[in-house]
């Protein structure tokens, strides 16, 4: 056993750049998440946002949350992410089955702007009520002013393609 070096005295192994690790599993380069599975008779409707795969973010499509808390030394990144999740769930619950696009959340200073496309299936007075109710409740919960920007459209107008 004299031909084996003494590993305790080898300080070069302590440097992270000189270590080599063995990977025994195969590399799985499956790009599966964020993509929609085609149906046999091509009956699934996609909007333009849904039709673009995730690697086209910032090229063909945009982010669904706009804030500056995720940059280096940003304030409250975890709280902002939780608030975005809460806002999306509150909006889909309050505006039940009305949104035909993604809910876009933009934060500018202390103002929270929520945008989206809803379908024209309810009376405009109910849309005005839901807008005021949502702005008031969310601004009380989030303790910052909230502005709702809603556009109405028919579901067929947002169709991009069938898969």
Please specify the SSE layout and strand pairing:
Layout: E1 45-46, H1 48-51, E2 65-66, H2 77-94, E3 104-108, E4 111-119, H3 124-142, E5 146-153, E6 161-162
Parallel strand pairs: 2-3, 4-5
Antiparallel strand pairs: 1-6, 3-4
Strand line-up across the major sheet: 2-3-4-5
Beta content comes to 15-25%
Rg, rounded, reads 25 Å
Output the helix-strand order: EHEHEEHEE
Shape descriptor? flat
Roughly how many Å apart are the termini?
66 Å
Mean pLDDT: 84
Helix content percent band: 25-40%
Query: Which spans of ≥5 residues are poorly predicted at pLDDT below 50?
Result: none
Distinct helical segment count: 3
Protein name: 28S ribosomal protein S24, mitochondrial
Subcellular location: Mitochondrion
Family: Belongs to the universal ribosomal protein uS3 family.
InterPro entries: Ribosomal_uS3m (IPR026146)
Please, could you describe this protein's structure?
With 163 residues, this protein is an alpha/beta fold. The chain contains three helices and six strands; from the N terminus they run E-H-E-H-E-E-H-E-E. The chain has helices at residues 48-51, 77-94, 124-142, and strands at residues 45-46, 65-66, 104-108, 111-119, 146-153, 161-162. The strands form two sheets. It has a four-stranded mixed sheet with strand order 2-3-4-5, covered by helices on one side. A two-stranded antiparallel ribbon has the order 1-6. Helix 2 runs antiparallel to helix 3. The longest helix is centred in the C-terminal third of the chain and has 19 residues, at 124-142. The radius of gyration is 25 Å and the shape is flat. The protein starts with 44 loop residues before the first strand and ends with a strand. The relative contact order is 0.14. The mean pLDDT is 84.
